[in-house]
Amino acid sequence: MTVGAGINVADGNLVVLGKPVLTNVPGNVVVTPASGDGLIDGAFIGIRSDQTGSRRVFPVGKLEGLRFICLFRFKLWWMTQRMGAFGQDIPFETQFMLVECSDGSSDDQDSDASYAVFLPILEGNFRTVLQGNEQNQLEICLESGDPAVEEFEGSHLVFLGAGSDPFDIITNAVKTVEQHLQTFSHRERKKMPDILNWFGWCTWDAFYTDVTADGVREGLRSLEKGGIPPKFVIIDDGWQSVGKDPFSVDCKADNTANFANRLTDIKENHKFQKDGKEGERVEDPSMGLSHFVSELKDNHSLKYVYVWHAITGYWGGVRPGVSEMGHYDPKLAYPVASPGVDSNEPCDALKSIAQNGLGLVHPEKVFNFYNELHSYLASAGIDGVKVDVQNILETLGAGHGGRVQLTRKYHQALEASVSRNFPDNGIIYCMSHNTDGLYRDPASHTIHIASVAYNTLFLGEFMQPDWDMFHSLHPMAEYHGAARAVGGCAIYVSDKPGQHDFDLLKKLVLPDGSILRAKLPGRPSRDCLFSDPARDGKTLLKMWNLNEFTGIVGVFNCQGAGWCKVGKTNLIHNEEPGTLTGVVRANDVNYLPKVARDGWNGDAIIYSHLAGEVVYLPKNSSLPVTLNAKQFEVFTIVPVQKLTNGVTFAPIGLVKMFNSGGAIKDLKYEADKTATVEITVRGCGTFGAYSSNQPKRVVVGSKEVAFEYSEHKWLMTLELRVPENEAYRWIVRVAF
C-alpha cells in the first residue's frame, strides 16, 4: 500500500524511500499521508484498536540493524541522547528518533544515505512517546494522565518524515506537524528576545535562594570592574514571598530551594524592598521592586532585568488559605508521574512535591494569576521571566481532563500574559534541555555539552535553545564558553562576585557588553549523528553553526561520562578517557554553501582558535584534529573567493574571539569593480583574514591603517580600536 510519496507499507514492512525501516508491522497499524503544501515526504502512523484506557502501549514493527539517535527523558525534567541499532535500545520516554535508512555507516555528506525522523505528537487528550521492547519492537505509548480519560482516536500518533538531508528532514517534519496541530509555531516564526545578543549574569549559583538586593549589586559591580559589563541580569529563585504549610516536610538539598515552600504573594519579599525587614511588608510600590530595578538600570546600564518563577508559582505551587492567593482558587493536588518517567531516574524534588502536595491554581483562573504577576513585574521595570518546573503539570492531570488539557491551559495563559506584559517576548523556558546538577556533579560537564548539542536537533526547531549559565572561573570554563559560542545561544554566567576569568570572557563578550552570536541553534555534524561522543570511547563531538558569511565548528572530547540505564543516574564510567583523533571538513557546516557567493568551488580556509593556524582546504579535503580528554578546539570555516587578479581571499573576523566570523556583518568582493574587498566588521581587537598575496593597502573608515602580513601563514591582521558607540560597525577595505 502506497501512503505517501516515498513511504510504503507492503508485505508487513514499513518502507521509506525504497528501504525497509520496520519489519513485522502489525495489521492494526494505520499510515495516513501528510496533507499540506508538500514540504516533506511524510505520513502519520496510527493504531486501529477498540481498546480503551488512560495508558496504552502498541507495537508498530521491529527495528533491527539500522543506526538511530533518539532523545529521551531520563528524569521528569531532563532529556539526553541514546544511540542504538535495535528496538530494544530505545528507552522509555523517547520524544524524538532519527533513523539512518541503510545498514552500515553513511557519514559522508555526499553519500546517497536517506533518513527517517519519528516525531510522537499529541492527539486529542493523549500524548504519545516511543519506546522499545526486548523483541526489538518499536512501541507507541499513549497516556492521558487522567484515569477518567480513556477513549482515543489513534489515527495520528507519530509523524514520520523522510529525505536525504537529516537537518532539512527534521525542520520540515516539525513544520508539517505545526500545520497539522496548529498549536505551536516553528522557531523561525517566533520573535527572539534581545537578551540573546548581550552578555548577562544570573544570580543562581552565586547565591542560590540566599540572593539579596546587595548581592545583585555586588555581582554587577564585580563584572563591570573587569571591563565585562552585563547587559541583562536574571534574579533567580530567592526574590519571591514564599512559605510552607505547618504540616509540610522540608526538602532542601545542595543549597537549593526548599521544595515544600509555596507562593504566598505575587510581590517581592523583604530582601528586595527598601529597608525591608523579615516578616514585614512594605506596600508602597516605590519602596519595593520598582525602586530596586530602577536603581539597577540607572547605575549599571542594564538593558534588561528578568526574574525567576515556577510555572505553578513556586515549587510547591501557591499556598491555599492565604488571603493574597484566595482569588486564584488554589487546591492541593498530588503529583502522579507516568510509569515511563518512574522507570528512569528517581527525583527527590518530585517525591517532596508528591508528599506535601502542590497548591494548584484553578486552570480557569491561571491567566489572571499570570497576568497579575507579570503586570506587577512589568510595572516595576522587569522585562521578562525565567519560567521553571514546567513538567510538573503533566503529573497533575487527574480531575482536569488529563495532562494535555491542563498543560495546554497553563501554557496558553502563560504565553498570553507574556505577550501582553513583556512585548520583547521576554521568556526563558528553564529545564528539559540540559543536565541536572551542573557544577554540583563532577560528571556533569562533558554530559552537559553532549546532551544540549543533541537535544538541539529536536528542541532547536521550536526555540533558540538555552545552554544555561556557566562559571567563568572554573577548570572547565573555557570548554563551556566555547560550546556556547558555537551554540548560537544567550551567553551568561553565574559567577560569585570576585570570581571571574576576564581573559576568557573577552573571547565571548565585546567591551560594549554585546556578543558575537551565531545565527542558528548549534547542532552535531552529520558524521556525529549516530555515534555517541560521551560513551563509545572513539568519537569526538563536532558541533556546527553559521554566521552571515562564515561557518563555525566546535570539536569537543566529551568521552568518559553519561547517563547510566543500570544505575539510573549520571556516572563517570571512564576516569581516564583516552586521546582521540578526528577530522574537520568544510562540509561539517551543513549549510555553508548558503553563505558563500554564487559559483563557489568548495575550497575553504579553516582557522583554529587555540592553535592560531590558518589551513587552506581544497573541496572535500579534511584537517586532522587530536584532543585529550575534556579538551576542545573551535574552527572558523570560510569559503575562499578568487578575485579577478588571481588573489584568493577569505575574511576570518576577530581572531581572538571564539566566534571570530560572527563579527563580519557585510562582505563585498571586487568593490568599485577593482581588486578590493570591503568588509563590515562589528567589534574591536585583532581582525584577521586569509590572503594569498600581501595587500597593497588597508583602509578603515577613511584612514589608511597599518597591518601585518605573514606570507608563511597567509594571514593578514590589523587592530581595530574600541569604538565610542555601542554596536559600532567598521568599514574595512583591503586593496590588492
Automatic annotation (TrEMBL):
<protein>
    <recommendedName>
        <fullName>galactinol--sucrose galactosyltransferase</fullName>
        <ecNumber>2.4.1.82</ecNumber>
    </recommendedName>
</protein>
<comment type="function">
    <text>Transglycosidase operating by a ping-pong reaction mechanism. Involved in the synthesis of raffinose, a major soluble carbohydrate in seeds, roots and tubers.</text>
</comment>
<dbReference type="GO" id="GO:0047274">
    <property type="term" value="F:galactinol-sucrose galactosyltransferase activity"/>
</dbReference>
<dbReference type="InterPro" id="IPR017853">
    <property type="entry name" value="GH"/>
</dbReference>
<comment type="similarity">
    <text>Belongs to the glycosyl hydrolases 36 family.</text>
</comment>
<dbReference type="InterPro" id="IPR013785">
    <property type="entry name" value="Aldolase_TIM"/>
</dbReference>
<keyword id="KW-0119">Carbohydrate metabolism</keyword>
<dbReference type="InterPro" id="IPR008811">
    <property type="entry name" value="Glycosyl_hydrolases_36"/>
</dbReference>
<keyword id="KW-0328">Glycosyltransferase</keyword>
<keyword id="KW-0808">Transferase</keyword>
<dbReference type="Pfam" id="PF05691">
    <property type="entry name" value="Raffinose_syn"/>
</dbReference>
